């Protein structure tokens, strides 16, 4: 796909139209979605990475720190800090794994399960606003398209 060249002052009408570039629009959509989600989650004392960590633990209670880090696109060191914060908030417990000495077993507390349900509702409210104008056909194809975009750029 050929890309137009950046405009000079003399030919401003030939400027690169970023609104037509999928990567730029995807970045904008992701950014405003994240901002809206963070604003809603802030009332629960959560950030998007903390929510994502709780959500993954809700899906996979046996998740390792490495799995959580991969899921939230962060480093194991940052994940350790996030889990410590969630522990301090009373949403997660951490104890040695019964069979693997180097692993930690994480578990949502009842308070963590409750806040996760509340957080899901807030995040899905943002999502519902974001997709409200899509047709059923567009909505049906959107997750698959976005997964293919994501997976094309994942490290091999």
In round numbers, the mean pLDDT is 88
Note the beta-strand portion. 5-15%
Q: Compute the number of strand runs.
A: 2
Q: Helicity range of the residues? A: 55-70%
As a whole number of angstroms, the C-alpha radius of gyration is: 20 Å
CATH topology of the domain at 33-126: Arc Repressor Mutant, subunit A
Any guess at the CATH architecture of the domain at 33-126? Answer: Orthogonal Bundle
- CATH homologous superfamily assignment of the domain at 33-126: Winged helix-like DNA-binding domain superfamily/Winged helix DNA-binding domain
Query: How many DSSP helices?
Result: 6
Q: Provide the low-confidence segments as ranges.
A: none
Overall body shape: globular
Q: Could you say which structural class the secondary elements and strand pairing correspond to? A: mainly alpha
Measured distance between first and last alpha carbons: 24 Å
Strand arrangement within the widest β-sheet reads 1-2
The largest β sheet comes out as: 2 strands, antiparallel
SSE arrangement, N to C? HHHHEEHH
CATH class of the domain at 33-126: Mainly Alpha
Can you offer a commentary on this structure?
The structure is a single chain. Helix 1 (22-41) crosses helix 5 (110-131). This protein is mainly alpha-helical. The chain has a domain at 33-126: Winged helix-like DNA-binding domain superfamily/Winged helix DNA-binding domain (Arc Repressor Mutant, subunit A, Orthogonal Bundle). The protein has helices at 22-41, 48-59, 65-71, 76-88, 110-131, 136-153; strands at residues 92-96, 104-108. The protein is built from 6 helices and 2 strands; from the N terminus they run H-H-H-H-E-E-H-H. It starts with 21 loop residues before the first helix and ends with a helix. GO terms for molecular function: DNA-binding transcription factor activity. It holds the Pfam family MarR_2. This is HTH marR-type domain-containing protein. InterPro entries: HTH_MarR-typ, MarR/SlyA-like, WH-like_DNA-bd_sf, WH_DNA-bd_sf.
